[in-house]
Design goal:
The chain is mainly β and 441 residues long. 12% of the residues lie in helices and 40% in strands. It has five helices and 28 strands. Mean pLDDT is 89; it is low at 15-37 and 437-441.
């Protein structure tokens, strides 16, 4: 299914007011473009797969398609055994698509991942990540039991975090047992006081252990409360680090641990529903801002769909309804928007599929083409879902600059050290295309 087909399908399903026509020409160009002599500009990229416990290795065999301005495929490549690709970028090359499968632990069958970037320039495209939670090589996963009776006696009614899971320590609490993989590294443990006003944390090595009795001596790092109040209409507020630990609360404090990590953040989010034209959409907005060792963070103002975003989505849908690609979009009035994405997902016969197209704050959405075998999968989705989302990093820069910073971040050894990790804002609207709750006149 070309972009034109699935966007027009979305429009007809959402029964918006605009109508349009236009044919569908999905024929591919055979002109690879570029000059006949001399050195062409090149792109470089890498593809990586992360296994069940986060061990990464190169992902070979990822299909890479280069499109011209109209969206036709003009060159096709495959990443090598090291997950790398260096390829010519012809003079008429404009957009880039990568596709491969990911395997997630909560899904029996694979997910077909298609990622497209519009308005691409030659140079380093960074690393694209895929997942294979079925791969346990090097993980050494096992169940570990944590007897907590002595901890309950010493810290009654406190909240225990083992990794990302929480347990209220009451006399009736049984010893929790969780799966842990040695390949993941030490487990982060936290103890939030019963009054929610203080916390302690620690890191425990579980290598060769199937049982670990927790005591107060395991919690050696003092928590620092984050100086941020969760908005009344927001859901649970999260605090965490790029290394993986997290804690959360609806109304109480959340904590960071400067002596454990200096890459901490706070993450508020809200969600709800609203009407776009004649259709109902799920809305979601969130922010992730760095937290200092004193618990301070930059001012956070969650983006609001009513602040121009829903109107911009409606205008885009009406643009798409004309059937005349490329489709113009403009989300720059919402805030400091860096990236826009349009995503189509749904079930297919042997799993599910997800196609996401990334562009800038404003620009043109081309009618991207896919090879016939992939086109057929998106043409026959069950329970299709459409998302329109925007992302920003607190300032305004050209798309080419954001792409360069994203590529640099993808190659950094230590997570959370990029300038992009200091402030991120995100917002989206989601539509179930075959289960719409329509608004009646």
């Amino acid at each position: 299914m070309t972009v034109k087909k699935w966007t027009l399908t979305a429009i007809s399903t959402l029964v918006l007011t605009a109508c349009g026509g236009g044919g569908d020409d999905s024929s591919a160009s055979t002109d690879n473009g570029g000059s006949s002599g001399g050195n062409l500009p090149q792109i470089t990229l890498n593809t990586v797969v992360s296994n069940k416990c986060g061990i990464e290795k190169p992902k070979s065999g990822v299909n890479v398609f280069v499109h011209n301005n109209a969206g036709d495929i003009i060159s096709e490549y495959v990443t090598d055994s090291g997950g790398g690709l260096t390829a010519n970028w012809p003079s008429n090359a404009k957009h880039l698509t990568l596709t491969a499968e990911s395997h997630y632990y909560y899904k029996e069958q694979p997910t077909l991942i298609v990622i497209s970037n519009v308005d691409v320039e030659a140079g380093d495209q960074g690393i694209t990540y895929f997942s294979d939670d079925k791969d346990e090589v090097g993980c050494n996963c096992k169940q570990v039991e944590f007897p907590v009776q002595s901890l309950i006696a010493d810290a009654p009614d406190s909240m225990l975090y083992l990794g990302g899971r929480s347990y209220e320590l009451t006399p009736l609490t049984s010893s929790p047992s969780i799966e842990w993989c040695d390949g993941t590294g030490p487990i982060d443990v936290q103890l939030i006081a019963a009054d929610g006003q203080s916390s302690l944390a620690g890191s425990i090595d579980l290598a060769d252990k199937t049982q670990y009795t927790l005591g107060l001596s395991d919690f050696t790092h003092q928590g620092v409360a984050v100086d941020y109040v969760n908005p009344y209409d927001a859901r649970i507020l999260y605090a965490g680090s790029f290394e993986g630990w997290t804690n959360y609360s609806q109304n109480d404090l959340v904590f960071v641990y400067p002596t454990l990590t200096n890459s901490s953040y706070v993450w508020p989010a809200r969600m709800g529903q609203e009407n776009i034209g004649n259709a109902r959409a799920d809305n979601y907005s969130s922010a992730r801002h760095r937290v200092t060792s004193e618990g301070k963070t930059s001012p956070i103002m969650l983006w609001d769909t009513a602040n121009g975003f829903s109107d911009a989505v409606y205008l885009l849908f009406n643009e798409i309804a004309t059937g005349q690609a490329p489709y113009q979009y403009d989300f720059s009035g919402v805030g400091n928007v860096a990236l826009t994405h349009m995503s189509l997902s749904g079930d297919i016969d042997n799993g599910d599929a997800d196609w996401t197209i990334w562009g800038g704050a404003s620009g043109s959405m081309p009618d991207l083409k896919l090879p016939a075998n992939l086109d057929a999968k998106f043409d026959s989705l069950y329970s299709p879902r459409l998302q329109i989302g925007i992302r920003g990093y607190g300032s305004e820069k050209p798309l080419s600059t954001w792409r360069m910073l994203l590529a640099e971040r993808s190659r950094m050894d230590e997570r959370g050290t990029s300038s992009l990790d200091y402030e991120t804002n995100y917002m989206r609207l989601s539509f179930d295309l075959d289960q719409q709750s329509y608004i009646r006149p």
